[in-house]
Amino acid sequence: MTHPPEALPGRRLDAHHHLWSAARVERGDYHWMPTDGPLRGDHLPEHLAPALEATGVGGTIVVQAAPSVEETRFLLELAHATDFVLGVTGWVALDRPEDAELLAELAADEYLRAVRPMIHDLPDPNWVTRPQVHANLERLHELGLRFEALTRTEHLPAVDAALAAVPELPAVINHLSKPTYRPDADDQWRQWMLRLAERPHTWCKFSGMLTEVGPGWSPAQFQPYADFLFETFGADRVMFGSDWPVSSHLLAYTDVVALTDQLVTEAGLSAPAEVDAFWAHTAERFYGVRAPATATPTRSHQPLSS
């Protein structure tokens, strides 16, 4: 399916990408990264900028990829120096009493919009329900920050309980909470995502699908999940994220946008308000930012088969 240029939204915001330097990789900041390959190089604003221009993405949210406050400060420095970075999702441990003061210090920087502990790497699936984490989630809300949940299915019951205890805290589930993309194995995922969708202050990022499936992916694997997500959360609580550069070992940024465009169109998003919500307005409301209008890409996006 192709889409004429006039059908594309006037604003686009990428709500989930990363930035890092090769030097930080080599010193061991990113424990999850392969020991070799293109991800280990520099991935900085100047490397992303051409793809943003080509796809009409006018603003972004850069998300932490290392569990360190030092990386968060690095991302905040990049945000101050980069026109297209509108906000930063940083990292704070959240399970220590002193984190309340650290949150207040970091929140003084206007670019810090959210905090993301790397829950799916922690050994305790109920970590997010610990009393000290709860206290710091309340502190997040008091400071006007948002909470990002990097999870798999087994973490969703605890996330649901934690958000029930701080019901006004804006929260976003990253990467659809990483289902298996095998419908017969994702019943529990659907059950808990339905529960979370009932919470009006809980949102979801449409991102990270390629990495979970890997080589051999097809749009048909993702389409039922796109349909489910928009049926449950709606376009006003689902936002686009490229997951660049992690996604780039499988698909170029421009083709990630093309694939996303294909999936959300097939899911039934066609009204201009819905299209604008998904591509920009939902993330703008969640993060409290505004993506600038950009020139509409001249290249129509072609459907992808593999």
Largest sheet: 8 strands, parallel
Secondary-structure element pattern, one letter each: EHHEHEHEHEHEHEHHEHH
Helical/strand content category: alpha/beta
* Alpha carbon gyration radius: 18 Å
Q: Assign the CATH class.
A: Alpha Beta
**Overall body shape:** globular
Q: Give the count of structural domains.
A: 1
User: What is the terminal-to-terminal distance?
Assistant: 14 Å
Q: What is the CATH superfamily classification? A: Metal-dependent hydrolases
Strand content: 5-15%
CATH third-tier fold name: TIM Barrel
CATH architecture: Alpha-Beta Barrel
Number of helices: 11
Question: Could you please describe the fold and organization of this structure?
Answer:
β5 (146-149), α6 and β6 form a beta-alpha-beta unit. The protein starts with 12 loop residues before the first strand and ends in a 19-residue tail after the last helix. It has a single domain (12-287), classed as Metal-dependent hydrolases (TIM Barrel), CATH 3.20.20.140. It is built from 11 helices and 8 strands. Residues 1-9 and 295-306 have low confidence and may be disordered. The protein is of the alpha/beta class. An 8-stranded parallel beta sheet has the order 1-2-3-4-5-6-7-8, sandwiched between helices. It is globular and about 45 Å long. α9 (219-232) crosses α10 (253-266).
